Each structure stands twice: as structure tokens, then as C-alpha cells.
Amino acid sequence: MNEKLKRITHYRLFLPLICLALVLLVNMIKTPTFFHLSIKNGVLYGYTVDVVNRASELVILAVGMTLVVASSAGTDISVGAVMAVAGAVCCYILSGGAVSVNEYHAPWILGLLAALVAGTVCGAWNGFLVSRMKIQPMVATLILFTAGRGIAQLITKGQITYIRVESFKLLGANIPGIPLPTPIFIAIIVVLITSIVLKKTALGLYIEAVGINPTASRNVGIKSKQIIFFTYTFCGLLAGIAGMIATSRIYSADANNIGLNMELDAILAVALGGNSLGGGKFSISGSVIGAYTIQALTTTLYAMGVSADQIPVYKAIVVVIIVTLQSEEFNRYMRKFSARFAARKAEVAK
Amino acid sequence: MEEHQHVVLTMRGICKSFPGVKALQDVDFTLRTGEIHALMGENGAGKSTLIKVLTGVYELDKGEIRLEGIDHPIVNRSPEEAQSKGISTVYQEVNLCPNLSVAENIYIGREPKKFGRIDWKTMNRLGAELLKSLDIDVDVTVPLGHYSIALQQMVAIARAVDMSAKVLILDEPTSSLDELEVEKLFTVMRKLKGQGVGIIFVTHFLEQVYEVCDRITVLRNGQLVGEYPVAQLPRLQLVAKMMGKDFDDLASIKSLRKHTPAEDVVISTERLGHSGTIKPFDLQIQKGQVVGLAGLLGSGRSELARCIYGTDRPDSGKLHVDGREFAASHPIDSMHAGMAYLPEDRKNEGIIADLSVRENIMIALQAKRGVFKLLSRKEQEEFTDKYIDLLQIKTSDRDAPVKSLSGGNQQKVILGRWLLTEPDFFILDEPTRGIDVGTKTEIQKLVLQLADQGTSVMFISSEIDEMLRTCDKMEVLRDGAKVAELDGDRMSQESIMASIAGGER
């Protein structure tokens, strides 16, 4: 029995899952309606659906961020801004430069592809700076972090570009006849494809190896620079996808608000998932759980009637608790404490 | 002289256990004044535990330590307390301040004072006198960091001796020194011995023990094997006692090397050079030949290996592999050309610490196959088990992180990693450094076995006799240039030393 318990608690995703469960448990007690689901017009409604739906962009970003962190022991803080760039590029192409349009000026698929290319190019730029120019990741991505929204503004000429076409909203809403919102499926597909590629090729191993010891990895024939370049580029592509979802939700390119502060949540998701920000071993599933935990927390606070401007305070408190629970130092302290407790108990028993 | 010596330190019945391990069981140790006493044993024999018990890093479970001049058993709770009683330790890594002057380092915390302020003049004078008395030639006003590790170590020794001159512990002081520096260190040690200091010398190098020590205490698996005067314990017996089993004596290794290499040249360099490290170098390696690179640290032996393998890019000359001109832009190119490279710095360039033994073994072959052709889990496990078995890697589990293994076993993992790629040319840079004697012998045998199977080997080692046992041919380097090429009967400890030392000797 004890052995079994030990194996469960040592399982890598144990703590991230416990954290998610805790957040959900609070809901169960405080907001019983949290788990209620209802169907209206063939579409599923409820807080839980909302959590999973709203978390989609974060999940996608967290996947890319996990790989960046693992390979380079650094973070890409530009992903939020890259989302805005992708959205602006897409809307610019579909609107043909107008502020608000009621029909596409170019095929939808072209807009989508352009957005993904824009994200990929941004990622490649970051990757180039980090892997070739050896600039610290935080500094390298700071460039697009600050310049990205400016670039997006330039593209949209400082205005919010609206695409008022029903089909444009499909990426961020429900496809008719399907009860769940599209972003959920996109997030699942991204996670699945990434996981399969990492599992079926040696890429995952290479990324971990490079993150742990780039010199030794080079000596065994791994092109460390290429791997780091790849993770940043891929992270950019995923930011492009997330940007498309966010743009579709509000059927407009809002350069100032799309993806705002998302980079921080994405980094947090990676950390909550039990991944070390020092690079090396990583778990995509951990980050995904982390992302859903963050969104569940936000939605929970809304459901409990906390006002939007106070939410960061509560979020910070919970994050501190979760991160402390997972810290090595805290766990060492707890082990010591419980050992001492057990010793005292044994003494009393004597 | 023996009669004038008296016992300065005795340790009796020392026991120390850690959870699950009895690190020391009933160990006795005696140190006399004016002697250099080697503490020998394989990795895990209990040498460092004994030292740590003595210096107060660990508390002992049982037993007593007595020091001359104190009429009751002493208990040290910290290295500082041990030092105050006259027991000082100098470690391989010098823990002094490189940005302070040599004199400051010697007197830090106990500076001579005048009117409440540091008396620099006196301090520098005392420091200079102290170092001069030990024949150490440095300017005491220069920051310590300007001097080599060897000199820094000697300053550390001078400081330790000046503070408390009864017992001096030197824990693997020679691991990062080249031969001339070692010689200098020995001079200092002999001086101290003459002054009546008892020195405990922990080392892996057998030669050094015979060069400088008076007595040897051998430990094995936490137990005392015995204490012997050096003159009465021949090298082979010492190794046998350390290993505690009958084994082919080290000398017999040479006899295994009967086979003569084939004529075809696998690797040849033509005026290969790298500015600042190696001068234009010509070298030919035949199929199945073991070529040794000898020279002091910094003589360019590692750099030459790195240039051939492609971790560094040579900037002049040509490299031929199997007769064709070859230039690697990345190690993977060299791997495809059949090369393998075990780097000198295992920790920073060899192992990938957080990955498992399995991943560390399969990763080179995987890189050679390419990212899309992932070895199946079954293949990976088969390969791993094969090499764990073949090289007798001691690990709890094939999926244990490689960092949890001992140094020798980590080295075996890296060997396994490269053997799996079936190389034609294997570069081994200091494969036996910091590894226990048993594993050393195994690695040497493996090298010979590989050569018999037709693999060419480049063998780099600081231990000349290790190379004498394994190599067919030796290239001697000095200051980045080839100064001699020795083979057959011309290979001997004397001829190599003479070539290394050159005209200066």
C-alpha cells in the first residue's frame, strides 16, 4: 500500500494534477453551479466548457514555451506580441487595408497562412538571435516584445481592423452542428501533433540533451544551434496559431490587446507543470495541465464575483502557494519536518 | 632517522556509517612526525570518509582520535576546530581568494597589525620569508590568481603549515598538475617533512606514491587492509591489496599487445595546425594501431585531438581519412567518417547528466542515424543492457540518471556510447583520469581489444606508463609541436621524459 502511494506521489505529474484538482475543489464548494452543463441550440454551455475554451491559446503557447525553455534554459517573452502581429497580418490581407469590411478581399486561407508565416518569421528571428548571435533569450525576445505591437500597429495603421464575416469567427467560436468551440479542438490537435512528433522522432531527446549540456550534445553529433533555432521558430508558429484564434474571437485585429500579458501566463504554465526553467527534461502534458490550471483559476475568480482589476492579486496568491508546494526546498523541509514528527511520535509511544 | 620519529596522530577503531552503507569499519591509522603517509584505496574504499572524520566534516560513530600533546581523545566538530588543533587540509580545488595578493591570502584573518591597522610591510616580508623557506618562488604582492593552480596550491599549503604545523592532509593535490608542477610540489612536501610535519597524502597515482611517500595505509570497502613501509610493498602487491582480488598484473597488459597493425593508413594529417595551440603537425595512424600523445598539460595534445575530431576547426594543413581529404564542419561529419571522441572533461563535455544511462548510451548512434529514425525502445534497451553487461557498468537501473553513477561508471557509459557506433577511429582523451585502479585496467584492456579488432585508437594520458602498456607508437608534444615520434624499443619512460623535457633537462 505504502509502496503504491509512494509511486503515485513520485509520478512526475502528481503535483500539477493535485494543483488543478485543488482549484476545481474550491469551485465545487464555493460555486456549485461551476460543473453544470446545459445545451442550447446544440451548443454546450457551462463554466467548465468556458475554462477549456478560454485556455486554448494559453495551452498552445505553453507547448511552444516548454520547448524553448527546455532547449535554451530561457524564455520567449515575445509570444504575446507575436500573436498581435499574426492577427494584424491576417486582417490586413483579408481587409485589403480597409478599417472594416463585410466580405473578404482575399481568400481566407491566404490570410491564415500569412499569419502563420508571420509568426514563424518572428520565431525564426528570435531563434537566430539566441542560437547564432548568442544573445540571452530574455534580451533577444525583448526586442519583439516591445517592437511587436508597434509592428502590428504599423500594419493596421493604428486602427482596429474589423472583419465582419461570419466564417471568420468560426476559428474562435462554434462550427455549426458541433457542440464544443473550435479553439478546444485546435489546442488538442496542436498538443497531439507535437507530442506525436516528439515521441516518434528523436527530437524530444535532442531538445533535452541540448538543454542539459550543449557542449556534450555537440560532441555526440547533435547540432545544438539548429535545435535551439528550431524551438524558437516553432514557438513563433504556435504564437501565430494562438494569435489567429484570439483574432477570430473578436473578429478584429486589436494590436494593443491581443495576447496582452499572455507570455507571462505561458511561462507560468510551464513552471506550474513541474518543468524546470533551467532547461533540460520537460513534460508537455505538465505544461498543458498548468495552462488549464491558470485558466480555471481565472474563471473561478470571475465566478466568485471578484472584479477584473482585483483578479491579479488573488491569482498571485494562489500561484505563490502552488509554486511553493512544488519547490524542492519546501519539499525537503517538509520531509525533515515529517521525519522529526515521526521520531517524536515513536518516542511518545515508548 | 626512523628512531627520531614519534607518533603525532593515532586513530583507533574508527567506525562511521551512512544510511545503508558502512563507510568505515574499525579502521586504525597512525601518522608519525616527518613522514609522508599515503592513504590508498579504490573509489569508495573510505579514504575521503576517513579524512572527513578526522577534519570534523563528519562526526564519527565509534572510535577515538588522539593527537600528540593532548592527553585525551579529541573530537572535531568542524574543519576550523581541527585546524585550531593542528590538522590542516589542502584540497584539489584551492579555496583561497584569487583577487587578493599572495601575502594577503596567507595571512587573511590573522594579519600582522600595527596601531590597529594592517602592517603591510611586515605581512609581505613574513610571507616572502615563509615561501622562500619552502623554495616557492613568487612575488607575494601579486594577486594569487596570476599564478598557476600548482602555485596556488603551494601557497595554500604554506598557509596551512604556517597556521598549524602538526598534520597536513593533501587530498588529491596532483590531479590537475602537470609533471613539472608535481615535481615542485614534491619538493615542498619533502621540505615540510624535514621540518617534522606529518603529511597524509591521498592520491590515485601509484608512481607518485613511490616517489615521495614513506608509508602506505591501504583501505578497501571501508576496512583497513594494512599499513606498510613503501620499500616493502611492491607496486603490484599494492594494487592487489587495493583491489583485493587476484588480477592480471598491470605489466602483463603489454604482453597482450602482440598484434601488429595493418599497413593501411586510416588517419593522416599534413601540416595540420591551429593558431595559438598546435603548430603544423604530421601524423599517420594505421588501421588497428594505438597511437599515444604524450606531453605536459597545455602541450597541445588535447587540442590536436579536438582538431582531428572537428570540435575545433584547424586553420591550416590537411586531414585525410581513409586516404580522402576530410574537413568536418561539425562533429557529426566526423562521426559519419567513423570517428568517436571521448573528451577530457567528462562532466562538461561528456555526460549529459540528467539523462538516463540508456539515453546517454544510445544518443550518439541516434544522432548518427538522424532525428527521424528513432531507435525503438526495445533496441535501446537491448543496446543498453549489452554495454552495461560488457563494460560491467554499476547502475541500479538502465533508466537511472547517469549523474547518479560514480565517475568510473560514467566514463564506462561514455565508452559504451561510442562503442555502440562501431567506430573505426577512437580518440580517448584522458579516459582514466580520476578513476579507480580496477576500472583503469579494464579500460586499458578494452583499448587493446579494440585495436585487435581493427579499430585505430588515439590515446592521450598524463600517465606515461599507462601509455607504454597500450600504445604501438607515441607522439611526444611540447608547446604545440611534435618533438619526437617513438615506437617499438625506443619507447620507454626515460626516452619519453627526455623528449618532453627537451633541452631544458
List the defining traits of the structure above.
heterodimer; A: 350 residues; three-stranded mixed sheet; 15 helices; globular; B: 505 residues; six-stranded mixed sheet; 25% strand
The main β sheet of chain B shows up as:
6 strands, mixed
How do the strands of the widest beta sheet of chain A line up side by side?
3-4-5
- Beta-strand content of chain B: 15-25%
Mean of pLDDT of chain A: 90
**Poorly predicted regions of chain A:** none
Q: Largest interface: which pair? A: A-B, 21 and 28 residues
Low-pLDDT sequence parts of chain B:
246-250
**Count of helical regions of chain A:** 15
Q: What is the residue-averaged pLDDT of chain B?
A: 85
* Biggest beta sheet summary of chain A: 3 strands, mixed
SSE string of chain A, helix = H, strand = E? HHEEHHHEHHEHHHHEHHHH
- Note the gap between the termini of chain B: 32 Å
| Radius of gyration of chain A, in angstroms, nearest whole number | 22 Å
Structural class category of chain B: alpha/beta
Number of strands of chain B: 21
Description:
The complex is a heterodimer of chains A (350) and B (505). By secondary structure, chain A is mainly α. Chain A has a domain at 53-294. Chain A has helices spanning 2-10, 14-30, 47-54, 56-72, 79-95, 108-132, 137-155, 182-200, 203-212, 214-219, 224-249, 262-272, 284-303, 311-326, 328-349, and strands at 38-40, 43-45, 100-101, 161-163, 252-253. The radius of gyration of chain A is 22 Å and the shape is globular. Chain B has helices spanning 47-55, 79-85, 102-107, 120-133, 149-163, 179-194, 206-212, 235-243, 252-256, 301-309, 331-336, 346-350, 357-369, 377-390, 407-419, 437-452, 464-470, 493-501; strands at 7-18, 21-32, 36-40, 62-67, 87-90, 113-114, 117-118, 167-171, 198-202, 215-220, 223-229, 265-274, 278-286, 290-294, 316-321, 324-325, 339-342, 425-429, 456-460, 473-478, 481-487. In chain B, the strands form five sheets. In chain B, strands 5-8-9-3-10-11 form a six-stranded mixed sheet, sandwiched between helices. The longest helix of chain B is centred in the middle third of the chain and has 16 residues, at 179-194.
